[in-house]
Design brief:
By secondary structure, the chain is α/β, with parallel strands linked by helices. It folds into two domains: 83 residues, 3-Layer(aba) Sandwich (Rossmann fold), CATH 3.40.50.10860; 122 residues, Rossmann fold. The chain is built from nine helices and eleven strands. α2 crosses α9 and α6 crosses α9. The longest helix has 26 residues. The protein binds NADP nicotinamide-adenine-dinucleotide phosphate. NADP nicotinamide-adenine-dinucleotide phosphate binds next to α9.
């Protein structure tokens, strides 16, 4: 753990750039260009900006990237028909449907419709099951990004007390699986955890993924702990995390919002796209 008193800022951009450099070198050795296909429904401003960012970064890296924008009124059947078409398309390596989807569409049905070997978000039950079984899989992007961020700054989680606040399928649970695989002792806290302060104060590494601005106060952090802030909350015109700014005076290391985990999520998506492309072609070469 870092020395108390000197706060280390866990910036995501240099870590993402290092990963892009690795991917760039990997792409140079391929005889094909991996292709990502993102589907967005409706005009939710956050989704519009996330999809634009993913598309831009994919192209910057040298991947093929396509975005299909469908109206909010698209039926579940129409969306599933598009997913089946992308599943069957030999030129498409990664498929991502940007969440949230409109209320009349079941997120579960959408996730389960995507071929597991093209599921670059790592959220298909097959990938989730493999993750918990410790098998090779496409890992969920934000949790994988958190692991890489910690690793880059020299923090091993092995043998450490890790507390994750938030137990969603998107962040908390898959992150717990990755932490466990790396030999951490993991606690998942949530909205029904009775004494959250007592739990979070145990953490050598504390991850906030609750989507509640300023939930983690300095009194909840063990001095010198490593704190990763996954939260993204809009407060007025500003984006803030789940961690109160006062935590900077107590923690040994802290990821900023924005600029911490966010860039890692996009980088892991593109890493998954390259991985999926190589694996699928290797698998077909073996037949
Ligand atoms: P979610 O599905 O809403 O889950 C939130 C989790 O936090 C739930 O498990 C909930 O507990 C728990 N929680 C809520 N309030 C709490 C409280 N007061 N005390 C303790 N636990 C509490 O959210 P999510 O999709 O996991 O996302 C979490 C945050 O991460 C959001 O701000 C989201 O925008 C952000 N995010 C960021 C990135 C990125 O790339 N930076 C990517 C994904 C998500 P219950 O289960 O008991 O309800």
């Amino acid at each position: 753990m870092p020395a108390q008193g000197a706060l280390l800022k866990l910036e995501g951009s240099p870590v993402a750039e290092a990963l892009y450099a690795e991917l760039h070198a990997q792409l140079a050795g391929l005889t094909f260009v991996p292709r990502l296909h993102v589907v967005r429904l409706g005009e939710d401003p956050a989704s519009v900006s996330y999809v634009r960012l993913k598309d831009r970064q994919a192209k910057k890296l040298g991947l093929q990237s396509e975005v299909t924008v469908l109206p909010e009124s698209t039926s579940q059947g129409e969306l599933l028909a598009l997913i089946h078409q992308l599943n069957a398309d030999q030129n498409v390596d990664g498929i991502l449907v940007q969440f949230p989807v409109p209320k009349h569409i079941s997120p579960k049905t959408v996730l389960e419709a995507i071929r597991p070997d093209k599921d670059v978000d790592g959220l298909h039950p097959i990938n989730v099951g493999r993750l918990w079984s410790g098998e090779e899989c496409l890992e969920s992007c934000t949790p994988a990004g958190v692991m890489r961020l910690l690793n880059h700054y020299g923090f091993s989680v092995a043998g450490k007390e890790v507390v994750i606040v938030g137990r969603s399928n998107l962040v908390g649970k898959p992150l717990a699986a990755l932490m466990l695989r790396s030999d951490a002792t993991v606690t998942l806290a949530h909205s029904k955890t009775p004494d959250l302060v007592a739990v979070t104060r145990r953490a050598d590494i504390l991850v906030a993924a609750a989507g509640r601005a300023g939930l983690i106060k300095s009194s909840m952090v063990r001095p010198g702990a490593v704190v990763v802030d996954v939260g993204v909350n809009r407060v007025g015109e500003k984006l803030v995390g789940d961690v109160d700014p006062g935590v900077a005076h107590v923690a040994g290391a802290l990821s900023p919002v924005p600029g911490g985990v966010g860039p890692m999520t996009v980088a892991m998506l593109l890493s998954n796209t390259v991985k999926a492309a190589i694996r699928r072609r290797d698998a077909s070469a073996m037949v």
